[in-house]
């Protein structure tokens, strides 16, 4: 085959290949633009419908990457504190204000200690009742099953409120007063305290994430 | 002619390969957002059962949160229902146990209307951490109407592998615009607006399933022992119903349409859970008869569950 013919042949393959490739890209581009155009037109003409997005607390990384301004990270100085019945023990949390590195964070964030969110179910209650039976009691009485322990009344915080500028950290102490009359079956158990730090002022939820945490009390005696 | 035909075929193959490559790279560059897969009971089209409570169990055993690139929500969702009007109210109630990739497990409760959430715990930064993903044995979640049908209580129990179970109670007080006095289970056909078009859609008024903010690997979720309480009395276990798979998005047959509402012009507008299908594998009774009816394991893998599959 003469060289000019080879060149023509190769050029032909290249040109037709590129042509079809470009055509394919155009089809994709037109298809994409048609989709968005159709969505745009639809907005003007008739209801689009209601989509429910996933909801729930994000991680600090996800929150900041999605455009959130500030995160208050709550970290216990120790994951586990030990205590005895009739005593008061201290658990310390460090609160740190991290601002979004690409946009300005909130200039100041006021955080208030809102207590402990959860209750616990002692082993004897867990062993003798089902979750459904415990729910039945809650439905009937408006209160958790007898023997379940609400933890919020056992704790106090100092300071109650802190204000954090971007980059700033402050410590908050939580004091747990362990009732002397807690049952023996709790001795040796790990008890989770889910701490809730709330907003001292009103913030847009898209701007501020409080990365909640907690601490485990190990009851030694 | 023969040579030319081969050349043209080569060019077409090259272009097709290029296009596929571009599409694949596009898909890999952007993770699918809001992927969701679930199941729903179907006792026949337009067979709707109002109910006042539902509960279910779930666990995340087999998950490696630190390797996940997004979160995982194990959830039960249901449409609000008015027994006075015998119609959907547009409100949606969701009980969620949420596993984040920082290993925290949250009790997450949400109410939705018209694509917005008028009540939940996450917008007020009050969703509690109930424990860790790796330390979780199982969770129990329920939500129910009070006797006066003015409040919905969300109750979650977290059972750790070691330590005492903990619980969280969250209560939604119905706002005046919420005419719901029940939830609803069932499969309903309605014409409603979807994407600006009046569309024939199939609604699944009670759904369970898993969702992420973006698709991720390294997770496994089990949902089991789900039971609801009809307003007429008694209990209904999903294990005793015909339950089918659904996927996030607006596929008119297999999509996640959950309720409808009416706008001021009287137009019926569809509501659905999440925007995309979660293409995942599953273990369930019709696929693996050793799995009891009423139980499903969801996890990334292949082959994916075919859309609309009967699970049990």
Provide an overview of this structure:
The complex is a heterodimer of chains A (221) and B (312). Chain A has four helices and 13 strands. Chain A has helices at 3-45, 60-65, 123-128, 131-141; strands at residues 50-52, 70-76, 80-83, 88-99, 109-116, 119-120, 149-150, 155-158, 161-164, 169-177, 190-199, 208-211, 213-219. In chain A, the strands form three sheets. In chain A, strands 8-10-4-2-12 form a five-stranded mixed sheet. In chain A, strands 3-13-11-5-9 form a five-stranded mixed sheet, with no helix packed on it. A two-stranded antiparallel sheet of chain A has the order 6-7. Chain A starts with a helix and ends with a strand. Chain B is mainly beta and 312 residues long. In chain B, 9% of the residues lie in helices and 50% in strands. In chain B, the strands form two sheets. Chain B has a 19-stranded mixed sheet that branches. In chain B, strands 17-18 form a two-stranded antiparallel ribbon. Chain B starts with a helix and ends in a 13-residue tail after the last strand. At the A-B interface, helix 1, strand 1, strand 6, helix 4 and strand 11 of A face helix 1, strand 4, strand 5, strand 7 and strand 8 of B. Strand 1 of chain A pairs parallel with strand 18 (268-273) of chain B.
């Amino acid at each position: 085959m003469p060289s000019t013919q080879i060149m023509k042949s190769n050029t032909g393959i290249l040109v037709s290949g590129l042509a079809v490739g470009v055509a394919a890209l155009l089809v994709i581009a037109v298809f994409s633009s048609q989709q968005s155009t159709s969505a745009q037109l639809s907005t003007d003409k008739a209801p689009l419908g209601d989509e429910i997005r996933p909801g729930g607390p994000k991680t600090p990384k996800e929150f900041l990457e999605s455009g959130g301004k500030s995160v208050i990270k709550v970290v216990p100085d120790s994951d586990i504190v030990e205590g005895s019945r009739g005593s008061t023990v201290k658990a310390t949390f460090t609160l740190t204000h991290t601002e979004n590195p690409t946009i300005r964070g909130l200039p100041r964030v006021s955080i208030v200690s809102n207590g402990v969110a959860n209750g616990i179910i002692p082993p004897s209650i867990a062993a003798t009742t089902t979750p459904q039976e415990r729910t039945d009691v809650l439905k009937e009485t408006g209160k958790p099953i007898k023997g379940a322990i609400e933890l919020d009344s056992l704790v106090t915080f100092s300071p109650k409120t802190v204000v954090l500028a971007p980059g700033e950290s402050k410590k908050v102490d939580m004091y747990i007063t362990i009732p002397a009359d807690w049952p023996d079956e709790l001795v040796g158990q790990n008890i989770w305290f889910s701490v809730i730090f709330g907003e001292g002022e009103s913030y847009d939820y898209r701007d501020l994430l409080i990365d909640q945490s907690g601490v485990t009390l190990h009851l030694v005696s | 002619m023969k040579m030319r035909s081969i050349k043209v075929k080569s060019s077409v193959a090259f272009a097709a390969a290029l296009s596929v490559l571009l599409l694949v790279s596009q898909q890999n560059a952007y993770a699918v957002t809001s992927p969701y897969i679930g199941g729903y009971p179907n006792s026949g089209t337009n067979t709707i059962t109002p109910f006042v409570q539902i509960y279910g169990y779930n666990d995340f055993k087999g998950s490696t949160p630190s390797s996940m690139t997004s979160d995982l929500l194990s959830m039960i969702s249901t449409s609000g229902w008015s027994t006075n009007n015998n119609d959907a109210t547009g409100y949606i109630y969701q009980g969620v146990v949420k596993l984040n990739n920082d290993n925290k497990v949250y009790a997450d409760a949400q109410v939705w209307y018209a694509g917005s959430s008028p009540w939940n715990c996450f917008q007020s930064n009050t969703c509690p951490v109930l424990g860790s993903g790796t330390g979780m044995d199982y969770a129990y979640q329920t939500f129910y109407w009070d006797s006066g049908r003015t409040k919905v209580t969300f109750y979650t129990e977290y059972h750790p592998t070691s330590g005492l179970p903990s619980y969280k109670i969250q209560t939604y007080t119905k706002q005046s615009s919420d005419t719901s006095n029940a939830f609803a289970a069932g499969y309903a056909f309605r014409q409603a607006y979807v994407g600006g078009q009046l569309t024939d859609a199939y609604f699944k008024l009670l759904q369970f399933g898993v969702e992420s903010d973006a698709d991720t690997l390294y997770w496994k979720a089990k949902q089991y022992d789900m039971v609801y309480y009809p307003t007429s009395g008694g209990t209904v276990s999903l294990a005793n119903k015909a339950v089918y798979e659904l996927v996030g998005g607006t596929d008119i047959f297999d999509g996640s349409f959950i309720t409808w509402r009416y706008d001021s012009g009287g137009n019926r507008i569809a509501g659905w859970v999440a925007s995309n299908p979660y293409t995942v594998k599953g273990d369930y009774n019709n696929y693996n008869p050793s799995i009891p009816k009423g139980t499903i394991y969801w996890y990334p893998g292949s082959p994916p569950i075919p859309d609309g599959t009967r699970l049990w």
